[in-house]
Write a structure and sequence with these properties.
The protein is elongated and about 55 Å long. The protein is built from 10 helices and 5 strands. The chain is 44% helix and 15% strand. β1 and β2 form a beta hairpin. The chain has one domain: 2-Layer Sandwich (Nucleotidyltransferase, domain 5). It has a 5-stranded mixed β-sheet with strand order 3-2-1-4-5.
Length: 209
Protein backbone atom coordinates (compact mmCIF):
# COMPACT_ATOMS: atom_id res chain seq x y z
CA UNK A 1 0.00 0.00 0.00
CA UNK A 2 1.41 3.37 -0.96
CA UNK A 3 1.80 6.15 1.52
CA UNK A 4 -0.61 9.04 1.15
CA UNK A 5 1.90 11.75 2.12
CA UNK A 6 1.39 13.85 -1.01
CA UNK A 7 -2.39 13.67 -0.85
CA UNK A 8 -2.56 14.37 2.90
CA UNK A 9 -0.26 17.37 2.54
CA UNK A 10 -2.37 18.86 -0.24
CA UNK A 11 -5.68 18.31 1.54
CA UNK A 12 -4.22 20.01 4.63
CA UNK A 13 -3.20 22.94 2.44
CA UNK A 14 -6.84 23.40 1.49
CA UNK A 15 -7.05 21.71 -1.89
CA UNK A 16 -10.47 20.14 -2.39
CA UNK A 17 -10.02 18.19 -5.62
CA UNK A 18 -6.68 16.52 -6.42
CA UNK A 19 -5.85 14.83 -9.72
CA UNK A 20 -3.21 12.29 -10.63
CA UNK A 21 -2.21 11.72 -14.25
CA UNK A 22 -0.02 9.09 -15.89
CA UNK A 23 0.51 7.62 -19.34
CA UNK A 24 1.23 4.15 -20.67
CA UNK A 25 2.46 3.03 -24.06
CA UNK A 26 5.54 5.15 -24.63
CA UNK A 27 7.71 2.20 -25.61
CA UNK A 28 5.61 -0.04 -27.90
CA UNK A 29 6.17 -0.36 -31.64
CA UNK A 30 2.43 -0.21 -32.33
CA UNK A 31 -0.71 1.44 -31.07
CA UNK A 32 -1.49 4.69 -29.25
CA UNK A 33 -0.13 6.26 -26.11
CA UNK A 34 -2.88 6.50 -23.49
CA UNK A 35 -3.10 8.71 -20.42
CA UNK A 36 -5.57 8.69 -17.55
CA UNK A 37 -6.50 11.40 -15.08
CA UNK A 38 -8.14 10.48 -11.77
CA UNK A 39 -9.74 13.19 -9.62
CA UNK A 40 -10.43 12.54 -5.94
CA UNK A 41 -11.51 14.41 -2.83
CA UNK A 42 -10.76 13.80 0.85
CA UNK A 43 -12.84 10.61 0.88
CA UNK A 44 -9.99 9.08 -1.08
CA UNK A 45 -7.91 8.76 2.10
CA UNK A 46 -10.45 6.28 3.40
CA UNK A 47 -11.52 4.63 0.14
CA UNK A 48 -7.98 3.72 -0.87
CA UNK A 49 -7.73 1.36 2.08
CA UNK A 50 -10.12 -0.90 0.16
CA UNK A 51 -7.72 -1.14 -2.77
CA UNK A 52 -5.39 -3.94 -1.79
CA UNK A 53 -2.03 -4.46 -3.49
CA UNK A 54 -2.12 -1.04 -5.07
CA UNK A 55 0.94 -0.51 -7.20
CA UNK A 56 1.78 1.09 -10.50
CA UNK A 57 0.41 -0.70 -13.55
CA UNK A 58 3.67 -2.43 -14.45
CA UNK A 59 4.03 -4.08 -11.04
CA UNK A 60 0.63 -5.65 -10.48
CA UNK A 61 -1.25 -8.53 -12.07
CA UNK A 62 -3.85 -8.20 -14.81
CA UNK A 63 -6.51 -9.57 -12.47
CA UNK A 64 -5.66 -7.02 -9.80
CA UNK A 65 -5.55 -4.20 -12.35
CA UNK A 66 -9.04 -5.07 -13.59
CA UNK A 67 -10.37 -5.12 -10.03
CA UNK A 68 -8.81 -1.77 -9.15
CA UNK A 69 -9.97 -0.32 -12.50
CA UNK A 70 -13.59 -1.06 -11.58
CA UNK A 71 -13.15 0.32 -8.07
CA UNK A 72 -11.65 3.57 -9.36
CA UNK A 73 -14.34 4.08 -11.99
CA UNK A 74 -17.03 3.53 -9.36
CA UNK A 75 -15.55 5.66 -6.57
CA UNK A 76 -13.43 8.47 -8.02
CA UNK A 77 -14.95 11.92 -8.38
CA UNK A 78 -14.05 11.86 -12.07
CA UNK A 79 -11.89 9.87 -14.49
CA UNK A 80 -10.64 11.08 -17.86
CA UNK A 81 -8.86 9.30 -20.72
CA UNK A 82 -6.60 10.81 -23.37
CA UNK A 83 -5.52 8.89 -26.47
CA UNK A 84 -2.96 9.94 -29.09
CA UNK A 85 -2.59 7.63 -32.06
CA UNK A 86 0.50 6.30 -33.77
CA UNK A 87 0.27 8.77 -36.68
CA UNK A 88 0.52 11.70 -34.30
CA UNK A 89 3.32 9.98 -32.39
CA UNK A 90 5.27 9.70 -35.64
CA UNK A 91 4.61 13.34 -36.43
CA UNK A 92 5.39 15.07 -33.11
CA UNK A 93 7.52 12.40 -31.28
CA UNK A 94 6.59 10.22 -28.33
CA UNK A 95 7.41 12.71 -25.57
CA UNK A 96 5.17 15.40 -27.04
CA UNK A 97 2.48 12.79 -27.77
CA UNK A 98 2.61 11.60 -24.16
CA UNK A 99 2.22 15.15 -22.85
CA UNK A 100 -0.64 15.73 -25.30
CA UNK A 101 -2.46 12.57 -24.19
CA UNK A 102 -2.08 13.66 -20.57
CA UNK A 103 -3.49 17.08 -21.38
CA UNK A 104 -6.45 15.47 -23.17
CA UNK A 105 -7.11 13.24 -20.16
CA UNK A 106 -7.05 16.19 -17.75
CA UNK A 107 -9.33 18.32 -19.92
CA UNK A 108 -11.84 15.48 -20.26
CA UNK A 109 -12.64 15.12 -16.54
CA UNK A 110 -16.02 16.40 -15.42
CA UNK A 111 -14.67 17.86 -12.17
CA UNK A 112 -11.89 20.40 -12.64
CA UNK A 113 -9.07 19.63 -10.17
CA UNK A 114 -7.42 22.24 -7.95
CA UNK A 115 -4.02 20.67 -8.56
CA UNK A 116 -2.62 17.95 -10.82
CA UNK A 117 0.14 15.53 -9.80
CA UNK A 118 1.98 14.49 -12.95
CA UNK A 119 4.19 11.42 -13.28
CA UNK A 120 7.66 12.28 -14.53
CA UNK A 121 9.82 15.37 -14.71
CA UNK A 122 7.75 17.36 -17.20
CA UNK A 123 4.68 19.44 -16.43
CA UNK A 124 1.87 19.50 -19.00
CA UNK A 125 2.38 22.50 -21.32
CA UNK A 126 -0.36 25.05 -21.96
CA UNK A 127 -2.48 23.85 -19.06
CA UNK A 128 -4.07 26.51 -16.86
CA UNK A 129 -3.98 24.46 -13.65
CA UNK A 130 -1.65 24.09 -10.69
CA UNK A 131 0.73 21.21 -11.36
CA UNK A 132 3.46 19.29 -9.60
CA UNK A 133 5.68 16.94 -11.60
CA UNK A 134 6.94 13.97 -9.58
CA UNK A 135 9.73 11.74 -10.89
CA UNK A 136 8.74 8.07 -10.47
CA UNK A 137 5.38 9.33 -9.27
CA UNK A 138 3.63 6.08 -10.15
CA UNK A 139 5.82 4.35 -7.56
CA UNK A 140 5.51 7.06 -4.91
CA UNK A 141 2.04 8.59 -5.08
CA UNK A 142 -1.17 6.58 -4.75
CA UNK A 143 -3.33 8.74 -6.99
CA UNK A 144 -0.75 8.59 -9.81
CA UNK A 145 -0.63 4.80 -9.43
CA UNK A 146 -4.42 4.76 -9.84
CA UNK A 147 -4.11 6.77 -13.06
CA UNK A 148 -1.42 4.38 -14.28
CA UNK A 149 -3.73 1.41 -13.76
CA UNK A 150 -6.66 3.08 -15.52
CA UNK A 151 -4.46 3.93 -18.51
CA UNK A 152 -2.93 0.45 -18.65
CA UNK A 153 -6.26 -1.40 -18.56
CA UNK A 154 -7.80 0.95 -21.13
CA UNK A 155 -4.85 0.64 -23.52
CA UNK A 156 -4.65 -3.14 -23.16
CA UNK A 157 -8.30 -3.40 -24.17
CA UNK A 158 -7.65 -1.18 -27.20
CA UNK A 159 -4.76 -3.38 -28.29
CA UNK A 160 -6.87 -6.51 -27.88
CA UNK A 161 -9.46 -4.98 -30.22
CA UNK A 162 -6.73 -4.07 -32.70
CA UNK A 163 -5.56 -7.69 -32.71
CA UNK A 164 -8.80 -8.66 -34.46
CA UNK A 165 -8.42 -5.87 -37.02
CA UNK A 166 -4.77 -6.69 -37.66
CA UNK A 167 -4.41 -10.44 -37.15
CA UNK A 168 -0.97 -11.95 -37.25
CA UNK A 169 0.83 -9.60 -34.88
CA UNK A 170 -0.67 -10.97 -31.63
CA UNK A 171 -1.44 -7.52 -30.23
CA UNK A 172 -3.74 -9.20 -27.73
CA UNK A 173 -0.63 -10.73 -26.14
CA UNK A 174 2.24 -8.30 -26.75
CA UNK A 175 0.09 -5.12 -26.59
CA UNK A 176 2.28 -3.66 -29.32
CA UNK A 177 5.54 -3.97 -27.42
CA UNK A 178 8.64 -5.08 -29.31
CA UNK A 179 8.83 -8.70 -28.22
CA UNK A 180 10.98 -11.03 -30.27
CA UNK A 181 7.87 -12.67 -31.73
CA UNK A 182 6.41 -9.27 -32.63
CA UNK A 183 9.60 -8.13 -34.35
CA UNK A 184 9.73 -11.39 -36.31
CA UNK A 185 6.11 -10.86 -37.42
CA UNK A 186 6.96 -7.36 -38.62
CA UNK A 187 9.81 -8.79 -40.73
CA UNK A 188 7.47 -11.46 -42.11
CA UNK A 189 4.33 -9.38 -42.71
CA UNK A 190 5.63 -5.84 -42.87
CA UNK A 191 4.20 -3.01 -40.76
CA UNK A 192 0.45 -2.57 -40.42
CA UNK A 193 -1.72 0.51 -40.06
CA UNK A 194 -1.04 1.04 -36.36
CA UNK A 195 2.72 0.56 -36.28
CA UNK A 196 4.86 3.54 -35.29
CA UNK A 197 6.97 4.02 -38.39
CA UNK A 198 9.34 6.47 -36.68
CA UNK A 199 10.43 3.81 -34.17
CA UNK A 200 13.38 1.49 -34.72
CA UNK A 201 13.40 -1.14 -36.17
CA UNK A 202 10.39 0.03 -38.20
CA UNK A 203 12.13 3.21 -39.26
CA UNK A 204 14.63 1.28 -41.38
CA UNK A 205 12.35 -1.62 -42.24
CA UNK A 206 9.66 0.72 -43.57
CA UNK A 207 11.97 1.82 -46.38
CA UNK A 208 11.39 -1.58 -47.95
CA UNK A 209 7.59 -1.16 -48.09
Amino acid sequence: MKKLDFEKKLFKQGYKYIAGVDEVGRGPLAGPVVSACVVVDRRFLKDINNLQNLNDSKKTSEKNRDKIFAEIRNNAISVGIGVVNEKTIDRINILQASLLSSKKAILSVKQKPDIVLVDGKYKIPDLDLNQEAIIQGDAKVAIIALASIIAKVYRDKLMTKLSTKYPGYNFNKNKGYGTLEHREKIKELGPCGVHRLSFAPLKDLNKKY
